[in-house]
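Exam review. A common question shows you a sequence with its structure tokens and asks you to describe the fold in words. Practice with the pair below. Do the first one on your own.
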Amino acid sequence: MTLIERALEYESRKMSNLTTSDRVQASREGRALILEINEIYKQNKDPELMELMKQLTVKKRKIEKRLNGVPTV
């Protein structure tokens, strides 16, 4: 499976009903995918890769937001 296929599969994956460890694993996988795509982007400056990285970042931030929870006052 190529890097872009893995990224698209990650993006289309449902993130409901996940355990905390599943969320941690998904967050780490998202970070790894973004870093791998970034290395390729540095070489050829493809705008489609930048858009893919942005979409993955949004999904990863949602997961991390859920992991961190609501801060107590």
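Now try the second one, then compare your answer with the model answer below.
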Amino acid sequence: MDFADVIRKRYSVRKYKDTPLTPSQIDSILMAGNIAPTAKDIQPQRIYVIESKGAMEKLAEAIGRMAYDAPNAFIICADESEAFVSPFDGRNFAETDATIVADHMMLAAQDIGVGTCWIGYFDPDKVREAFDIPNNERIFHILIAGIPADDAVPGPMHPKRKQLTATVRIL
């Protein structure tokens, strides 16, 4: 798929077929996250792949309706103690790095026909406990994933975009 098509057609999928992703699909998505740029290329990300039905049920218990009956998910974390810290303002880049990784994964999924929904509404303590994620790894994002259901459609806000003049300043 042409990159412009990937970014235009991608939307938050909230209805999935019951078919789990194949190992090849999971590998393609993980490879995109692996090659994502991170600050100073430190790569502090940690990705937990949820691929079994039992693990998805456990995730659904932790995040509730936000699981949208997806067959798979990726929990994207980062070790803040490994991440680059700006010498200018002390900003830790762990969240930025995890976000870039998640975005690469999301767009790679779209490119191979896999739908995703970026879940930010979850209690990280419940997710950490459910999957025994170490305390040094901060949970930043969850991408649920699967093949979109035949009747899956973008949410009503998806096509509504501000004009560039509202968000861009040319200097």
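Model answer, second protein: The longest strand covers residues 137-146. The helical segments are 3-9, 23-34, 53-63, 94-111, 124-131, 164-167. Full marks require stating both points clearly.
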